[in-house]
Amino acid sequence: MHRMKSYVRRENYSCIMTGLAVIGIVLLWISMTASRSESSSDVPTSAGHAELLSMHSSLQEKISSINRMLNENPALKGTQSLNAGIENALTKLKELESRFKDLEVQVPKKYPDVRFLNYKDRKRILITGGAGFVGSHLVDKLLLEGHEVIAVDNFFTGRKRNVEHWIGHHNFELINHDIVNPLFIEVDQIYHLASPASPPHYMFNPVKTIKTNTVGTINVLGLAKRVGARVLLASTSEVYGDPEVHPQTEAYWGHVNPIGPRACYDEAKRVAETLAFAYLQQEGVPVRISRIFNTYGPRMHINDGRVVSNFILQALQGQDITVYGNGAQTRSFQFVTDLVDGLVLLMNSNFSQPVNIGNPDEHTIDEFAQIIHGMVGGGSGVVHKAAVEDDPRRRKPDITRAREQLGWRPL
Ligand SMILES: NC(=O)c1ccc[n+]([C@@H]2O[C@H](COP(=O)([O-])OP(=O)(O)OC[C@H]3O[C@@H](n4cnc5c(N)ncnc54)[C@H](O)[C@@H]3O)[C@@H](O)[C@H]2O)c1
């Protein structure tokens, strides 16, 4: 037994020594490679960088396996030369980690091709909520058109991943900022999208939703007034509440329960529209108001909780599709790229009245569930659960105004 233990110890010892020798050689190789790329006038290539990263992770694995062996065989710990070797390797690893960070900055990144605009046509554009679902598509469109874009987001529902393909581009900036606090920045146009948009998100903290859409909107309008910028407000079809007029025209004032579960969003957006109009009339701030109807597309939050993403997710997971209520309530969905085209047209128009931006192609929720079940598959079909409080029964935009004023309609 004793012989067995000492054999294991001896084996581990030689294993550790071999590990240290390997680490030493790899460290030497990495330092040489890193200094070669530093002394060269060329920045390191992505392939070389990937090679360094894989060396780095294999080194980390080796060190953790040595640490594991030491913990399993405390008798080995006492070996002075071994301890010194490990200490030495760890210090070198730390140095290398900081060198990796420096090298990462130098790795050239490939960006989508953007149009060249001369300084007269190029605008500095602020997008609040720019890391969200709609905001990130707007970032894409405006950058591709050749503008400078500053996205401001507090990342409540937005994600850096949505705009990561632009990070580092000379025309793009991402600022972590909560719009409930004032922002001082020089811009020509502001798309004000910051607000949670799906019911589970805006009901999560109703008071904050109200603040974002009221105090946040005052901050945006105040900024526009100071710097002479034009503002487009992302309002919503929810200002119509559970509508008694069908389809909904912009002239309809709405039917909203002021103390219902959706009120924090619906009423706050109604106040945001009122604020925009007050700044237009009192201060002469040029405002545009888009009433956005249900939109879907890539980069919707996985836990968005809205119909399209819920249905697709359930179908992909092989579950039954859940319809709340009898399924006879109607909705109409537009694709996100249609929406951003409409927003840009509206911003650059001379029209200050609210404009519906949505798809008038209306379906019952049951029909949607069947369409998605037919396309994606999933469980045995569609199940119905109790209706959600204040869920609008019908929703369909009248887009005559968008068509006449902007020449816009969904493709
Ligand atoms: N997507 C739709 O179907 C739809 C329909 C009607 C209206 N809208 C409006 O369009 C806008 C964008 O909606 P979306 O679907 O992209 O939602 P989203 O949740 O994906 O995006 C909203 C963004 O705003 C950010 N945000 C929230 N509170 C903020 C704050 N206090 N400060 C800074 N950033 C904040 C979030 O982190 C997120 O990135 C919203 O104003 C929404 O009301 C969307």
From TrEMBL:
Cofactor: NAD(+)
Cellular compartments annotated: Golgi apparatus, Golgi stack membrane
GO molecular function: NAD+ binding; UDP-glucuronate decarboxylase activity
Pathway the protein takes part in: Nucleotide-sugar biosynthesis; UDP-alpha-D-xylose biosynthesis; UDP-alpha-D-xylose from UDP-alpha-D-glucuronate: step 1/1
EC number, UniProt record: 4.1.1.35
Taxonomic superkingdom: Eukaryota
Pfam families according to UniProt: GDP_Man_Dehyd (PF16363)
Coiled coil ranges: 79-106
Alphabetized InterPro entries for the sequence: NAD(P)-bd_dom, NAD(P)-bd_dom_sf, UXS-like
SUPFAM superfamilies referenced in this protein's UniProt entry, alphabetically: NAD(P)-binding Rossmann-fold domains (SSF51735)
Keyword Lyase set for record: yes
A biological process term (GO) from this entry: D-xylose metabolic process
Catalytic activity: UDP-alpha-D-glucuronate + H(+) = UDP-alpha-D-xylose + CO2
Gene3D superfamilies noted in UniProt: NAD(P)-binding Rossmann-like Domain
Flavoprotein as UniProt keyword: no
Residue ranges of every copy of the NAD(P)-binding domain listed in the record: 126-410
CDD domains: UGD_SDR_e
Primary location class: Golgi
Membrane-traversing stretches: 12-32
Recorded topology in the membrane: Single-pass type II membrane protein
Cellular component GO terms, alphabetical: Golgi cisterna membrane
Keywords: Coiled coil, Decarboxylase, Glycoprotein, Golgi apparatus, Lyase, Membrane, NAD, Signal-anchor, Transmembrane, Transmembrane helix
Protein family (similarity comment): Belongs to the NAD(P)-dependent epimerase/dehydratase family. UDP-glucuronic acid decarboxylase subfamily.
The protein, known as: UDP-glucuronic acid decarboxylase 1
Species the sequence originates in: Hyalella azteca (Amphipod)
